[in-house]
Amino acid sequence: MTPDERVPPPTTGDERETLRAYLDYHRATLARKCAGLTDDELRRRSMPPSALSLLGLVRHLAEVERAWFRRVFEDNGLPLVWSDRTDFQAAYDASASTRAEAFTAWEAEVAHSRRVEGAAASLDTTGLQPRWEQRVSLRMALVHVLLEYARHNGHADLLREGIDGEVGA
């Protein structure tokens, strides 16, 4: 595994700083799990019939970033990256994808999410979650996205170990 260059979350800090740091830590964990692998390795599926792969996770989390920051707080009608029908499962099919394509989209969405979060006056800022047709706070969006990463980084652990035996954080 590559050297661990992730910045650990703080052991003290205010709520926003803590949420932001944990989310960034999990984003870095996903990138770390994919480091040093070829496109073919990144596309390797977990087990039939699942389409789950590391590259599929990167694509899916790009969709999650877009759905919870750009769509909620800026443009409710913005299509997802890989689906115009709000089909989050479509991103998992990375059979024709490349590291460059998936990571370019994911990194762009992460950068945009950081701008949206940074521009909000407080964690109580609300936006419309178009799938639920309900207003949600930035706090809720940050927690939801953080939980998505934590869940999927567990999948990434198993996928990486199945590819080359690498284990660890």
Core attributes:
169 residues, 5% strand
Can I get a quick summary?
With 169 residues, the protein is mostly helical.
Mind explaining what this structure looks like?
The protein has a single domain, classed as dinb family like domain (Four Helix Bundle (Hemerythrin (Met), subunit A)), CATH 1.20.120.450. It is globular. It is mainly alpha-helical. The protein has helices spanning 15-34, 39-43, 54-73, 99-119, 138-164; strands spanning 126-129, 134-137.
Largest sheet: 2 strands, antiparallel
- SSE order: HHHHEEH
Ranges with pLDDT <50 over ≥5 residues? none
CATH topology: Four Helix Bundle (Hemerythrin (Met), subunit A)
Strand order of the largest sheet: 1-2
Number of strands: 2
The helical percent reads: 55-70%
**Overall tally of domains:** 1
Strand content: under 5%
Please, what is the average pLDDT?
A: 93
Based on the coordinates given, report the CATH architecture.
Up-down Bundle
Provide a count of the helices. 5
Characterize the overall form.
globular
Our Rg estimate from Cα atoms comes to 16 Å
The CATH first-level class comes to: Mainly Alpha
CA(first)-CA(last) distance: 9 Å
Global structural class: mainly alpha
Tell me the name of the CATH homologous superfamily: dinb family like domain
